[in-house]
Amino acid sequence: MVALIIIVVLVLWICVSCIKIVPQAQAYVIERLGAYQSTWNVGFNLKIPFIDKVARKVNLKEQVADFPPQPVITKDNVTMRIDTVVFYQITDPKLFTYGVENPMMAIENLTATTLRNIIGDLELDQTRAALDIATDPWGIKVNRVELKNIIPPAEIQNAMEKQMKAERERREAVTRAEGEKKAKILEAEGAKESAILRAEADKQAAILRAEAEKEKMIREAEGEAEAILKVQQANADGIKMLKEAGADAAVLKLKSLEAFEKVADGQATTILLPAELQGIASVAETFKAAAGKKAE
Fold this sequence. Notes:
By secondary structure, this protein is of the alpha+beta class. Helix content is 59%, strand content 21%. The chain has 7 helices and 9 strands, in the order H-E-E-E-E-E-E-E-E-H-H-H-E-H-H-H. The strands form 3 sheets. Strands 6, 7, 8 and 9 form a 4-stranded antiparallel sheet that branches. A 3-stranded antiparallel sheet has the order 3-2-5. It has a two-stranded antiparallel sheet with strand order 1-4. The chain is elongated.
């Protein structure tokens, strides 16, 4: 009874082991009695027990191979170390399984030799194309090759560092000169603006002084004119008052007497009298003649 149970369990285990479910993005390479039989893709599959076996499980996703830096010689005979990253994808599981013994080592060596041969003549895209063609028989497609790092020799690194230092110093000197130039320009512009403002201030001050002087002269002239008008008005008012008081005749007599005195003293020879005194002109002439005879 125990033996029967063991046999049943063994048969069930064998049947279950013959059921294979291939997951997404994978493929199984099946061999029958040591020879390639088929390639199982995604889904449910059955194999014959003890006859069929899964020779290899292949990952169909795009993969990345990061290889150590490889020494290469450039076109100008400089040895450099190139650190590359290869992005590849398995397109044929059968060729990947039976095409080469160690695919990853083969890709690494192929990448190194290809870079050594064409690093000075071809671009990186052409390198990728050359690797893609070379790996086709292995069922591998090289999608792209990226340069992660380029390591030059120590002497070239020193020369590059010196060159970079000189370039930085040159840029620093240029920047400093540009700063000094801008500072001088700003200083000159400030002095110019200051001179213009001072000139404008002096101009405004002169204009204000001239206007003040003009206003002063106008005020003084207006004051003098007003004073003259007031004096004239006062004289006119006085004359008017004398006329109203009957002083015109007395004034005329006084002026006539003064004229006569001047003629008598010899200070005047002609008497200009107002119209009111024209009647006594002959008296003045007679007085003048008398004065002349007295002098003789």
